[in-house]
Amino acid sequence: MTLLTLRELGVTRRGRTVLQGINLRVGTGEIVGLIGPNGAGKTTLMRAALGLIPPTGHSSLAQLAPRARGRAVAWLPQAREIAWQVDVATLILLGRTPHLATGQKPNATDRAAVDRAIARMDLSAFRDRTATRLSGGEQARVLIARALAQDAPLLMADEPIAGLDLAHQIGTMKRFADLAAEGRSVIVSLHDLGLAARHCTRLVVIDKGRMVADGTPLETLTQTLVRDVFGVDALVQATPDGILFQPRDIVG
Ligand SMILES: Nc1ncnc2c1ncn2[C@@H]1O[C@H](COP(=O)(O)OP(=O)(O)OP(=O)(O)O)[C@@H](O)[C@H]1O
């Protein structure tokens, strides 16, 4: 089953081409890491795929009406502002909105989805706390939980682990693996190439608005690619315990 199809997706902003020629098909059970330097076009790709900015070309998600899109994909943007002075459980319940008709009250299924998301993001101790009074990293986990509660087949997350402590970075990547094991998929932009190499099933490398590599972490994260795209000399090594990625120095 295909959860997302992009064909020749492109974006022009203020007369400048910032994304072009993106072709991508995401099936079930994938953790697709979107990687690339600052300004490469990762956020633009996700927002264009969702139809949040007008793209050229085709995105299967951009065609959908808002409620149908909310059931097809959960979107976790990079900006993490929480505006509502509500408790954590209530905020996470907002993730169920695409499943509720206008005026419909949440039912047992919705509450179970919230409980699952709270457990998955290690937030049981925070469920009754006011969300705006949590630390930045705690708020980030609440927003991930809200996206998980949406129970969509596809999760698109823009730098979701930025600002999380190490254990919660790894924990979040493992939760994404749980989703993939359930047959869902995750598209996640990441700057930590070590975590990307270790936890993603596939990496899509974006550079200057173009896709320059698409494959397994070992196929894509070659020393040459890391040097050419990121300007960094790195050690990339397959070990019995997974891929090790160690950036060593800036090149050039
Ligand atoms: N509203 C806008 N108007 C004009 N240019 C924009 C706009 N938004 C983004 N851009 C440009 O598009 C390019 C891609 O930006 P994008 O945010 O997609 O990069 P990114 O890969 O997500 O970067 P980062 O890792 O820094 O978050 C950048 O050159 C950026 O300056």
Question: What's the layout of helices and strands?
Answer:
Blueprint (H helix, E strand, L loop, with lengths): L1 E12 L2 E12 L3 E5 L6 H9 L5 E4 L6 H7 E4 L11 H6 L14 H13 L15 H14 L4 E5 L7 H16 L3 E5 L3 H7 L2 E6 L2 E6 L1 H4 L2 H8 L1 E8 L2 E9 L2
Parallel strand pairs: 3-7, 3-8, 5-6, 6-7
Antiparallel strand pairs: 1-2, 1-4, 8-9, 10-11
Helix pairs in contact: 4-5
Protein name: Iron complex transport system ATP-binding protein
InterPro entries: AAA+_ATPase, ABC_transporter-like_ATP-bd, ABC_transporter-like_CS, P-loop_NTPase
GO molecular function: ATP binding; ATP hydrolysis activity
What is this entry, summarized?
The chain has 252 residues and is of the alpha/beta class.
